[in-house]
Amino acid sequence: MTGYAALSREIGQAALAVELKSVNSRFLDLQFRLPEELRPAEPALRELLAAGLSRGKLECRMAIQPATGAAPQLAINEALLAALARAERKILDALPEAQPLRVGDVLHWPGMLANEEADADTLRDAAVALVKTALAEFAATRAREGDKLKDMILERIERMQTRLALIQSHVPQAIAAYQERLAARLREALATSDEERIRHEIALFGVKIDIAEELNRLGAHLEEVRRVLAAGGAVGKRLDFLMQELNREANTLGSKSVSKELSDASLEFKLLIEQMREQIQNIE
After folding, report:
1. Phi, psi of 230 (to 5 degrees)
2. Predicted pLDDT of residue 187
3. pLDDT, tens digit, for every residue of 107-148?
4. Which residue of 61, 84, 95, 247 has the fewest CB atoms within a 10 Å radius of its CB?
């Protein structure tokens, strides 16, 4: 299922930002776009997302930026500064005419200054906490989409059940009409004593006349879809299986059709099932 969430949080003089977005996929595919400072957090982030999701191609993108309005804070390497001062005094004692160090020289001395940034453990913990919060918002967006998909599926199920009820009431008349057509063909065959054709027509009638099992299974599968949707949770794979079973029964119904109405109903069923199946493949 598609989903999106974006959050940011300030950590000292830095701002940590995360963006989660997913597109439809039958399986779970996690992709990370992380700065080097957050690479150590990837295993924990992967475990967190895998525990909360089961389907979808998800991209987790994170960034570290200076906090809004924050002035850079510099830390002096006190130990290095003291060592540099001692070295300067020794040099000046030995060479009184030497120029003393200037402030600029000291500030540009390698290792003298450092930004006050969070350490690696703090960054990792903050990243995991932020993604956990974003995941809750992400799940909420997917839940809203899921509610819309649920309404769509239920609407198709209602249409199929309504049509199924009409078919069941039409079956006796369709069978009677087919029997009349078959009787006419049999009378024609008997007039020519074509035993082979008689056997063929009787066998064909026996196959086509028995659609009660298909209609019952269609009704049972439709009720099961309703039950699964009402139960909630990760239902995508179960619904995908039910769509396969519904499609199987709809195909069999079409192959056994004894009237145009039954054939039309079979085609309508397959269209509605395909519409549901395309969306169900995206449901977690």
Report:
1. -70, -35
2. 67
3. 788 777 654 455 677 888 889 999 999 999 888 888 888 888
4. 95
**Taking a C-beta distance cutoff of 8 angstroms, is the pair 66, 148 a contact?**
no
Cα angle value 202/206/210 (rounded, 5°):
160
Alpha helices, H only, 28-77: 42-52
Q: Cα–Cα distance between 125 and 109 in angstroms, integer?
A: 33
Please state the rounded mean pLDDT for residues 237-252. Answer: 90
CATH class of segment(s) 144-280: mainly alpha
Give the single-character DSSP code of 64: E
User: 17 has which bridge partners?
Assistant: 8, 63
Rounded to an integer, what distance in angstroms lies between the CA atom of residue 271 and that of residue 265? 10
What's the average model confidence in pLDDT over 176-184? 68
Distance of CA 154 to the CA centre of its chain: 20
- Tokens 């932020």, residue? 130
Side-chain half-sphere CA neighbours of 241 within 13 A:
5
pLDDT at 179: 65
Domain range summary for the chain, segments of one domain joined by +: 3-70+123-143, 74-115, 144-280
pLDDT of 156 reads 93
List C-alpha distances in Å: 187 to 175, 179, 191, 198, 205.
18, 12, 6, 9, 15
CA separation, residue 270 to residues 67, 115, 150, 151, 249 (Å):
56, 64, 19, 19, 9
Question: Which DSSP category does 21 fall into?
Answer: E
Question: Which residues neighbour 117 within 8 Å (Cβ) at sequence distance 6 or greater?
Answer: 12, 13, 14
At the topology level, CATH places domain 3-70+123-143 in Ribosomal Protein S5; domain 2 (3.30.230)
CA distance 234 to 204: 44
Q: How far is CA 263 from CA 155, 250, 252, 273, in A?
A: 22, 10, 10, 15
Same fold, 3-70+123-143 and 144-280: no
